[in-house]
Each structure stands twice: as structure tokens, then as C-alpha cells.
Amino acid sequence: MVGLNKIMIIGNVGTDPEMRYTTNGNPVTSFRIASSRSYTASDGERKQETEWFTVVAWNQLAETVNQYLSKGRRAYVEGRLQSSQWEGNDGQKRFNNEIVANTVLFLDKPGGGDAGLDDAPAGSEPDPGGALTSDDLPF
Q: What is the 3-state secondary structure (H, E, C) of the chain?
């Protein structure tokens, strides 16, 4: 049976991307992104909740994200949710969830100013909605 594991986030980048290389020489970049939602509580008070996500990008997407994304930028991230667990030095089980990105769209221009979804995207797969991918960028 075929399954589906897809997550889409729009939010603000909370950390500058950090790029490193695997022992095989493949680039991998990680960063944190915060996505907020507002709602009205039962008492009528407006409230806001923020969820933080760790995003990991590989290969060409990793290089593009590292070069053009920075803390404070607004971005759309699409990918799959990956969970892992391990035992810490103290013997306690540790858990981690991260988004393995296959598309990252830059939703604003560097230095502020909003832009559309199709303005300066980066991704490793074509977007059927007409957005450009990193292969379409002239630089």
C-alpha cells in the first residue's frame, strides 16, 4: 500500500541556515522556522500559538538555501516529516522530528518587502502550480 507523508509550512526563519557536508561530500543545510496561528479563545480573547520546526535540505537545494535564506526571512517549506530516536549519554530516550525539504520558496525579498510566492523560489522538484525551481534561476 502506498502512503503519503507531506508537510507544508509558511513561516519566518528563526536561525541562519547552517551548511555542512557528509563524509561523501553531499551538502546538507539545516535551519529553524516558526509558523504562527491566531485564534479566539472561548473567553473571547485573541491568542497566538507558534510552532517551531527544524528543516533539512540536501544537495543543490541545500546550497541554494544556505546562500539566499537568512534569519527573519519569510519562507514556504514543503517536504516530508522524518522522526528519529536515540539514547542519550544519560540513558534517556531522545526524540527528534524534522522536515526534509524538497521545495523552499522565498516569500519576501532580502532586506524586507513582501513578494509573491513565485518571486525567488528554490526547490529540487518542479512545482505543478507554476513556481520556479532552483534549476530555473539564472544564477
A: CCCCCCEEEEEEECCCCEEEECCCCCEEEEEEEEEEEEEECCCCCEEEEEEEEEEEEEHHHHHHHHHHCCCCCEEEEEEEEEEEEEECCCCCEEEEEEEEEEEEEECECCCCCECCCCCEEEECCCCCCCCCCHHHCCC
